[in-house]
Amino acid sequence: MSDDAPAHPKSRGAARRAQRRGPTMEDVAEIAGVSRGTVSRVLNGATHVSSASLAAVREAMRQTGYVVNESARSLVTRRSGAVAFVLSEPPDRLFEDPVLGGLMRTCTALLGAQGRGLMLMLAGNPDERERVLHFARGGHVDGVLLVSMHDGDPLAAALHGTGVPVVICGRAPATGPLMPYVAADDRGGARLMTQYLLDRGARRLATVAGPADTPGGVERLAGFRDVLGGAVPDGAIVRAEAYGIEAGRAAMDQLLHGFPDLDAVFVASDLLAVGALQALHAAGRRVPGDVLVGGFDDSAIASATMPPLTTIRQPLSQVAAELVEVLLELIAGRHPSSRVLPTSLVRRDSA
Amino acid sequence: MSDDAPAHPKSRGAARRAQRRGPTMEDVAEIAGVSRGTVSRVLNGATHVSSASLAAVREAMRQTGYVVNESARSLVTRRSGAVAFVLSEPPDRLFEDPVLGGLMRTCTALLGAQGRGLMLMLAGNPDERERVLHFARGGHVDGVLLVSMHDGDPLAAALHGTGVPVVICGRAPATGPLMPYVAADDRGGARLMTQYLLDRGARRLATVAGPADTPGGVERLAGFRDVLGGAVPDGAIVRAEAYGIEAGRAAMDQLLHGFPDLDAVFVASDLLAVGALQALHAAGRRVPGDVLVGGFDDSAIASATMPPLTTIRQPLSQVAAELVEVLLELIAGRHPSSRVLPTSLVRRDSA
DNA sequence: CCGGGCACCGTGAGCGCTCACAGTCTCCTT
DNA sequence: AAGGAGACTGTGAGCGCTCACGGTGCCCGG
């Protein structure tokens, strides 16, 4: 009742220090026998600091266990040190697709090495979208990595409107403001695979394409057509409803129905290919004996199927690296260009 | 040379406003004809605010597009509004395991609905670990969700030392300070599966256990033993090196070698089971004809294998929900208890 | 008719940092 | 020997917010 308030006004400083969370720059400065300004200088770059005071400050920091208060710093610099990783996808995509996990992981590691944090945000419904926008506008993040598979994503344009640097992973929306993107060469990869199937002796080629509103769905089909020219019979192209296993099975069933004597199929994603493999198996077709199957992504699942999937490898860690590089450039005020990274063929047993 | 500095000191306010990023509370207050204090009150709770000024402030906010500066707020409240999601794992785990992705996604969504952000952090090496600790100590996050599969993770103890609320997903380290955790009932699940295999007629049961330093590796094996009692022959237990497909294949090969007449195998994770299935297939054993195979996790891959995997389902979204609930309680200063959630059997074709 | 209570409101004092500026001190040039 | 160019350092003024405090006005009981 009597000891919970400092008795003397003069002891206020000490009391404050006692209840305060951690040491401040001021404390460090005092111990090191320098001023706030000098401590600040060693904190950012340490230019124009004598080696004597540098050492003193370092020692004082060590001794006090000082860690800089990022909020205070952000308040004045208007930089947050964080970037948002925005997933503009139907909610269950992340569950199924290991590709995204890898991307995220690599970005996090790369950003972390730069002392930056990665904030994960979903944008699967209007509420979430609004939150992302609010976040960006509020300056809580210095930049946004937008992973959007869908063309003409309204979020991309809206985000662009906030003035926050944005780089898109996948493909820039065909319409709307242009902003830098990083993507794997889907079309080239599809060409690679189609040609490979041809080289392996396929004569009755079919394809399971991805949804039409995704770059993968458009570009990979385009690559398939590039190689085959006009020689694609009716019924040899079926579009999957989504990128899941179920969708792949359904599409393959449909293909088997409409184009029964196929001897090879290019499937627009590994996950889809898993479903296709199941449908093929159920139909009694042997892979690769009766039909060759080529996938796309080289996701972790590709080597787990039976038989292991011949597929197109997306240079995922390179995509991640370029993604953060481009974003960092953007944040630094430069104007990096978009990048398309080459894909390559990974031969396994399915073709 | 002459027009880049304001001519009159008196115009400074206006110039500042022009170059300033966004409207501040002060601006909103001015427009609404009230004071900063009132604006602040409507921002947090709006108690003791007349409906007239409430409306005026709301309108002024709308009109100016005001969004609160979180850094300034954090600076004084010492709360950041973010929580860290720390992955204490070898780097390639996330690539392979869809379970983590789902957990992350659900946590992000749940946290987001509370207006909180989720910061993804890796802790796969000492550098990263140090970064996490630094982050926690710096008060950049209000709490930490530590996903740690390894027992006695030094990070858990270190994190506990920072005073930041921590909840562990998986299992609390047996040693060290006790902190709340949320886990699925691994042991119970393993019992469930083992009993099921027995009920299906298995007589020569074997198991591929997870690494010994993981709760999954310990608890699931314990559950297996619970049911079988002392009746487990030599060679019927093989420990996988890791949780990957390769490791599963290797372990199954070893089992086939040391315990050739097995008629059922309980594999400690779906990913491991994928490898096991491959090894079995390569050895010419049919599943489930010759040997029954049971997995664990019910990850997305379980329905993609051939045959689809009978497995134990972890209530992932419930784990996520409890995880954030417990953390939020902790942050609020309460003392929630740990939770263990029931698992269930999912019957597919492999057993 | 006056004093006290209550709902509402404005104000000042910071939170811990950065940045520009104004010193100080040393050393080199002319 | 005077002057200036650096190198180094300290200081003040905020960044935009919250929180405690001290006013107002108004209504009610005595």
TrEMBL record, chains A, B:
<dbReference type="InterPro" id="IPR000843">
    <property type="entry name" value="HTH_LacI"/>
</dbReference>
<feature type="region of interest" description="Disordered">
    <location>
        <begin position="1"/>
        <end position="25"/>
    </location>
</feature>
<dbReference type="InterPro" id="IPR046335">
    <property type="entry name" value="LacI/GalR-like_sensor"/>
</dbReference>
<dbReference type="InterPro" id="IPR028082">
    <property type="entry name" value="Peripla_BP_I"/>
</dbReference>
<dbReference type="GO" id="GO:0003700">
    <property type="term" value="F:DNA-binding transcription factor activity"/>
</dbReference>
<keyword id="KW-0238">DNA-binding</keyword>
<keyword id="KW-0805">Transcription regulation</keyword>
<feature type="domain" description="HTH cro/C1-type">
    <location>
        <begin position="24"/>
        <end position="67"/>
    </location>
</feature>
<dbReference type="Pfam" id="PF00356">
    <property type="entry name" value="LacI"/>
</dbReference>
<keyword id="KW-0804">Transcription</keyword>
<feature type="domain" description="HTH lacI-type">
    <location>
        <begin position="23"/>
        <end position="77"/>
    </location>
</feature>
<dbReference type="InterPro" id="IPR010982">
    <property type="entry name" value="Lambda_DNA-bd_dom_sf"/>
</dbReference>
<feature type="compositionally biased region" description="Basic residues">
    <location>
        <begin position="9"/>
        <end position="20"/>
    </location>
</feature>
<dbReference type="GO" id="GO:0000976">
    <property type="term" value="F:transcription cis-regulatory region binding"/>
</dbReference>
<dbReference type="Pfam" id="PF13377">
    <property type="entry name" value="Peripla_BP_3"/>
</dbReference>
<dbReference type="InterPro" id="IPR001387">
    <property type="entry name" value="Cro/C1-type_HTH"/>
</dbReference>
<protein>
    <submittedName>
        <fullName>Transcriptional regulator</fullName>
    </submittedName>
</protein>
